[in-house]
Amino acid sequence: MSSESANATLDSTFSSAVATWYGSPTGAGSGGACGFADDVANYPYEGYIAAGNSNLFKSGKGCGSCYQVKCYQNPACSGYPIRITITDECPGACNNEPVHFDLSGKAFGYLAKPGEADTLRNAGRINIEYQRLQPLLLAFAVEYVGGDGDIGLIELLPSNARDRWLAMQQSWGATWKADIPIGTKGPYSVRITTLQSEKQLKHAV
């Protein structure tokens, strides 16, 4: 079972960082070292992702972390923030700065004014501001289900919910999602009910 988080509330003030981009100019980037694979092109990421240097990737613990980023110094910058998710690691030269986001081509272009995306991408490297976001959505893919394997219902039980299970919705494929209320705390128990046998399985995540 692999999990990701998205959507968010503000966590801090903006700080300075450096941004570059990789891949095709309008590409969705890569799930890379975080194991998200091609899922980065789909909801909830939609290609708004980044590979982070060691201070963002945190040996894998930073996978799924959400940030708001905006650029302001380049004339092509819109100055408006976009939300991105850390889905990969940017090693080597990315660690020459304290904080470095290597954005997908799509995400980098969306930092620009309308019609200026290519101009901004041609800059290659820009100064940005960023702030951490706290996710309010939990999504994960369910694999290797026992029994008949047909999933009818998935529910979450937060550690502070006192047996109040939250029903999840199927997002696409094997991925299920749930809006997480503010104040909810993990770890979570997951209850899976299959269509045929209605067998229920629980996992601490």
The Rg value, from CA coordinates, equals 19 Å
Largest sheet geometry? 6 strands, mixed, barrel
Q: Assign the CATH superfamily of the largest domain.
A: RlpA-like domain
Share in helix: under 10%
From the 3D coordinates, which CATH architecture of the largest domain would you assign?
Answer: Beta Barrel
Number of helices: 3
- The number of E-state strands comes to 13
The CATH topology annotation of the largest domain reads as Barwin-like endoglucanases
**Count of structural domains:** 2
By secondary-structure content and strand pairing, the structural class works out as: mainly beta
Residues in β-strands, percent = 35-45%
Secondary-structure element order, as H and E? EEEHEEEHHEEEEEEE
- Overall form: elongated
Regions with little confidence, pLDDT below 50 for 5+ residues:
2-11
End-to-end separation in angstroms reads 9 Å
Q: What spatial order of strands do you see in the largest sheet?
A: 2-6-3-5-4-7
| The CATH top-level class label of the largest domain | Mainly Beta
Q: Provide the residue-averaged pLDDT.
A: 86
Protein name: Expansin-B2
Subcellular location: Secreted
Keywords: Secreted
Domain Expansin-like CBD: 136-205
